[in-house]
Amino acid sequence: MLVDESVAAVSMQALRRKLYGFICAVMEPGHIMNPAITPTETPVGKIVRGSDSRRAASWMHWGNIVSVLVPVPLLIFWFGASMLVYAMNRHHPEPRVGHYTQQAAYRFYAITGFFTAAATFIPGGGWTWYIAAWAAAALVIIPWSLLDLRRIRREEWNDIILPEN
Fold first, then answer.
1. Most exposed: 22, 65, 85, 104, by fewest CB within 10 Å?
2. Which pLDDT belongs to residue 142?
3. Within a 10 A sphere around the Cβ of 107, how many other Cβ atoms?
């Protein structure tokens, strides 16, 4: 069954227009990409609660800890999900959320990237090398993430008034 090329071209143009409209709406200044942040409408304007910012700052760290503790299959799933968490939180209205997210991402991607490259040279059936790599990753990621979670918890997180657009 052949599809008429003109119909396909028209539907592709319509799809491009919709996608372009969506991208323009998302990229407008002041737009919050994170669906977990629900600005509260107040007489002053829209605000983001400090508790929401604190929670957003800790997501990447908790995901790193859980994925390292249960590497099969969570590490693989978290590798993909962490990109979504990073994209949502890196440009948060509270700059500290972006900072903590970025630091957690640097550590996680550096460790997984290093051990993925190093695993190329592990001989077949060398499970002790894989266990050693997992233990080394846990020794780096878990204490550092717990330290950052402690810092996040101790910091004062104030509400943020979002600019009117």
1. 22
2. 96
3. 19
How far lies 27's CA from each of 14, 22, 23, 30, 55, in Å?
Answer: 20, 9, 6, 8, 24
Task: Specify the pLDDT at position 163.
Answer: 80
Answer whether residue 86 shows pLDDT above 80: yes
Q: What are residue 40's DSSP bridge partners?
A: 47
Residue 123 has pLDDT above 90, yes or no: no
SS3 call for 46: strand
pTM given for the model: 0.72
Quick one: CA dihedral 60, 66, 69, 72, positive or negative? negative
Distances (CA, A) of 85 to 36, 55, 65: 10, 12, 14
What pLDDT shows up at residue 29? Answer: 47
Same domain, 3 and 55: no
Phi-psi category of 125—alpha, beta or left, where left has phi over 0 and alpha has psi -120 to 50? left
Range of the domain at 49: 40-161
Indicate whether 75 and 3 sit together in one domain: no
